[in-house]
Design goal:
The protein is 35% helix and 28% strand. By secondary structure, the chain is an alpha+beta fold.
Length: 198
């Protein structure tokens, strides 16, 4: 699948799979964000060219899910119809904050559909850019926290396994020593008994 770089954050990438979409950051091995799973396959995703927190996602049903992170991050904020069959491509063909914005949508039958984007999905709201930056930073901190915590738990597990092995080794050594001591006691008792018989 294609990765699309954010027009507002040069190190942030959008990746779309059948069941979910992901936000990645250059230099991180883990994704920053994973959407909830969808009951209808995703086919394509594009960033809004004028809204830093908006993503348009094409669906196999022909629908378009619009995620607005300034509104919510657990599900799509809006849904629309882009085509009657699976969407195969999407691209913004004309944009500008003060101008009309159109989304060209290609479908599986080779038809082109032009969507007029409403004004509320064109113009940035208040501190949207800064709020999206903060959201991405929080997600990066969350990823790093879980990565560090996972390493701490792995180290703790290794340490506990080593201690358990050392305790088992010590118990085995004590059991062997106890067996040797019993043999010595038996030999001393046998010698004492033989002395009595004489």
């Amino acid at each position: 699948d294609l990765l699309e770089r954010s027009p507002f954050f040069s190190d942030i990438l959008l990746g779309v799979t059948d069941w979910a979409f992901y936000l990645f950051k250059d230099g991180l091995s883990e994704h920053l964000f994973q959407s909830s799973y969808t009951s209808t396959y995703y086919t394509r995703g594009v960033w809004s060219p004028t809204r830093p927190s908006v993503i348009f996602l094409g669906l196999v049903s022909g629908g378009i899910d619009i995620w607005d992170f300034s509104d919510q991050s657990h599900k799509a904020s809006l849904s629309d119809t882009g085509a009657s069959v699976a969407i195969t491509s999407m691209i913004f063909c004309y944009h500008g904050e003060d101008k009309e914005q159109k989304l060209a949508v290609g479908d599986a039958q080779g038809h082109l559909h032009i969507q007029n984007i409403p004004k509320n999905l064109i113009k940035q709201s208040g501190r949207e850019l800064e709020n999206m930056r903060k959201f991405l930073e929080r997600e990066e901190h969350r990823v790093n926290y879980f990565k560090e915590r996972h390493q701490e738990l792995r180290d703790l597990k290794d340490n506990m396994e080593k201690q358990a092995q050392m305790a088992a080794d010590a118990a085995t050594a004590d059991t062997g020593k106890a067996g040797v001591d019993e043999d010595k006691e038996d030999a001393v008792a046998e010698a004492a008994y033989k002395k009595l018989e004489m």
